[in-house]
């Protein structure tokens, strides 16, 4: 399967997907760490993560797929939400919790 198809499948098959450096337990960059913390604080449980450091093909091609150059990248319901800064802004406004609650009750 081509890497862009693999990315598309991951994004479509999981309501919340975070492409990050490292894992939620062992984030390998501050932005990924903060994004995981914010997701948890907003009520996300059992969200799907992909460690881009373990999959160089995904790391190289995700920016083409999403048209977003940096990591982490958060997708909710198949839609790119953005990176760390946007996730933090959505959390501070309460919007992230609303989006997560909507996804998790479905």
From TrEMBL:
Gene Ontology MF annotations:
2 iron, 2 sulfur cluster binding; disulfide oxidoreductase activity; metal ion binding
By its UniProt entry, which InterPro entries does this protein fall under? Glutaredoxin, GRX_PICOT-like, Monothiol_GRX, Monothiol_GRX-rel, Thioredoxin-like_sf
Glutaredoxin domain spans which residues?
A: 16-81
- Cite the PROSITE patterns for this sequence: GLUTAREDOXIN_2
Q: Which positions in this protein are listed as binding [2Fe-2S] cluster? A: 29
The protein's matches in Pfam families, at most eight in alphabetical order, are given as: Glutaredoxin
Q: Which NCBIfam families match?
A: Grx4 family monothiol glutaredoxin (TIGR00365)
The Swiss-Prot or TrEMBL record describes its family as follows: Belongs to the glutaredoxin family. Monothiol subfamily.
Name recorded for this polypeptide: Glutaredoxin
Q: Which organism is it from?
A: Luteimonas marina
């Amino acid at each position: 399967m081509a890497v862009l198809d693999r990315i598309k499948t991951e994004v479509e098959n999981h309501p919340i997907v975070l492409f990050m450096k490292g894992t939620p337990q062992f984030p390998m960059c501050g932005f990924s760490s903060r994004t995981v913390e914010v997701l948890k604080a907003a009520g996300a449980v059992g969200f799907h993560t992909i460690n881009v450091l373990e999959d160089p093909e995904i790391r190289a091609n995700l920016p083409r797929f999403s048209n977003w150059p940096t990591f982490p990248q958060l997708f909710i319901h198949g839609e790119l939400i953005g990176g760390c800064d946007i996730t933090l802004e959505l959390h501070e406004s309460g919007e992230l919790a609303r989006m997560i609650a909507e996804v998790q009750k479905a």
